[in-house]
Amino acid sequence: MKLGRGMRLPVIEAYGLVKSYGSTVALRGLNLVINEGEIYGLLGPNGAGKTTTLKILVSLLKPDRGHVRIMGIDLHRYRVEALRNVGYVPEDPYIFPNLVVREFLEFIGRLRGIPRDILKERIERYLSIFDLQEKERDLIKTLSRGMLQKLAVISAFLPRPRVLIMDEPMSNMDPEAQHVFKEEVRKLVRNGSTALISSHMLDMVERFCTRVGIINKGVLIAEGEVDELKRRALGGEDATLEEVFLAVVRGG
Ligand SMILES: Nc1ncnc2c1ncn2[C@@H]1O[C@H](COP(=O)(O)OP(=O)(O)O)[C@@H](O)[C@H]1O
Ligand SMILES: [Mg+2]
What we know:
Bound molecules: adenosine-5'-diphosphate, magnesium ion
Number of domains: 1
CATH superfamily: P-loop containing nucleotide triphosphate hydrolases
Shape: globular
Distance between the termini: 39 Å
Helix content: 25-40%
Radius of gyration: 18 Å
Strand content: 25-35%
């Protein structure tokens, strides 16, 4: 029997997430299930609830209602265990400004229990492919936004986590870094990781993600493989994901 997509294990599960900030309702019953081996693109207009969702998934925010499981582990009951194999890239990475780039990566690596020689090798490689070698002795507060984003991504990749949760990770990267980023994510996924990426870069998501969810006003309003979404939303595969996105978000 062929092992179908439906038989893959769920890695990230969120059910009935509700979250308000004062009188602003950011999530109103969001369900999201991401399976092993997917590169899942979470799309949505500004304010749709992407960042809120991702923060809940890594326990930086507590939902008012709903629950989350990561690799089958209940996030609220077993936070440390559930997040042990998760790499997170925040929307606005804030990294110790007075640490030196390499010190920070060594610190993260030790925290994650990576053996010294492997850590050294991985740091060298990531600094090289992301073109940060010349910055390795610089203070983090002197980095540009794009460099900071690359550093946040490297620190998430470093332990080769089973689960990657990344909030608009490419928004400040130059095209070369975006290319390197995508190659590395693909490589991690080939080796057993699963990735959730929020983005508003539709053309990137269209070519890069294996499945896409569109969130609007705190609920998932469409989901599927890119081709499938095009067929369902517009009755034709000639449409671009941008057209599908606009149709779905406008309620078309
Ligand atoms: N700290 C906060 N305080 C008040 N409102 C917030 C806060 N964070 C987000 N929001 C609101 O929640 C909604 C969802 O925001 P967010 O999750 O950041 O969306 P996205 O990442 O899709 O742009 C928006 O209306 C936003 O203004
Ligand atoms: Mg956001």
